[in-house]
Prior knowledge:
Largest sheet: 5 strands, antiparallel
Oligomer: single chain
Amino acid sequence: MLSDPAIAWPIKARNLAAGLLLGLLASASGAFARDFQPLQSIQQAVQVFVETQSPPVGGTLQVTVGRLDPRLRLPRCRQSLQAFLPPGSRLRGGTTIGVRCPESGADAKPWTVYVPARIGVRGRVLVTRHPLPRGSRITASDLEYREFDLTTLRRGYFTDQERLVGKILRQSLPAGKVVNPEILDRPKLVRRGQEVIILATSGGFEVRMKGQAMMDGAAGEIIKVRNLSSRRIVEGEIIAAGTIKVPL
């Protein structure tokens, strides 16, 4: 223990000075931090923008905002941050979202930063329950639901069994394969030379006539059909097996 005041005082003075210096450094560090925009607030702006701007989807929206360089120092924005979609970016998959500080004035320090993000949509789609050969006519027992990121299914998918049952496969499929519109043949509801019903409707009235199909066709296709009464050839849409709808 030190008892000589001549020695003890300088030590106390140095300790006091060190304490004051640490206090000043802490204060300066706090002021330094307060002068810069928290990076978390920028990421939050991206999250809110994506959640509010994404169109309604048939699944669960999942947003992953990329990390920002922790060394990034941007002046603290005195206004609300504005997030936006840069040209060429889109609200799906891997993308980039811009965030700007819109300050204006002589002493303002506006800035813009671009933040990477991943936007996914989780949803249930129909896949094959077991392997199916080419030419198979799909039944409900051939299908089951599995969950996918819908943004990765670029060729399309189905969520309603009724839209698949009865369709014919253009190629064989293994078990667990997503069924997309490109691999389907729609069954022919009308064959060339077949006698059909021509259905003409207007203003709540409808007229049915016999006709003859001039070509094959599936549901929704427009084909030529001959009116057996007038012998005129008209065009109409196949709306059911053996039924062609034409405008009056």
